[in-house]
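Subject: complex prediction, re-run

Hi both,

The earlier run crashed halfway through, so I resubmitted it with identical inputs.
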Amino acid sequence: MDVFEAVAEPNRRHLIGLLAERDRTAGELVDSLPALTQPAVSRHLRVLREVGLVDVRPDGQRRIYALKPDGLQRIDTWIAPYRRFWRDHLDALQQHLENR
Amino acid sequence: MDVFEAVAEPNRRHLIGLLAERDRTAGELVDSLPALTQPAVSRHLRVLREVGLVDVRPDGQRRIYALKPDGLQRIDTWIAPYRRFWRDHLDALQQHLENR
DNA sequence: CGCTTATATACGCTCTAAGTTATAAAACTG
DNA sequence: CAGTTTTATAACTTAGAGCGTATATAAGCG
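This time it finished cleanly. Structure:
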């Protein structure tokens, strides 16, 4: 499993969104996905860990999860060269609007 | 299947890369993935079409595929808010290096 | 027209991701 | 210590992705 597959799963994107706000315990993250059971969320967290998107630190009985800065950057690096496509597209549109 | 899943598959990322250079016929794209059979590539192209990442136009017997500008933008839009994470991280690193 | 070329679809197979229930492991609590 | 809380893992099931072979479809060509 790589970063791209990890991020392809909607529940995992949800978890990433929450961790972007602030660090959270596994339990908080479980509560944030009421449609899933605790083991299901735990496994999603494992995936995010394994691809380097999050970090965990123990806090007594709890595990505190944190978003890892460089994880998503790998996707951004891949997408960067393509950015000119919609930038060019937008420029063309702007020009069209300005010239009419 | 959504854009994220579409892009999670390595062969499809390969196809996107080629189409970023220039438009290509289905046949050219099939040749670009010698490990796969023609039907396999055809199905990948179908997926890319269905999620709006590419466009097709007929040219007689051939089909010419082209990258669609706004397809990947949806991923970029999702990732944009997180960009501050590694930008901040980089700033912190730079500062650290400058201050020693 | 038959024949070939180019592309898409149908079908069946295999492998794995994602979910559940049940349980383990480890730390807190009275 | 016994019981509870918190998180992770095990075992199993199911759904679907991705592949290959075979076939359909449609356009070019002699």
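Chain B has a mean pLDDT of 91.

- K.
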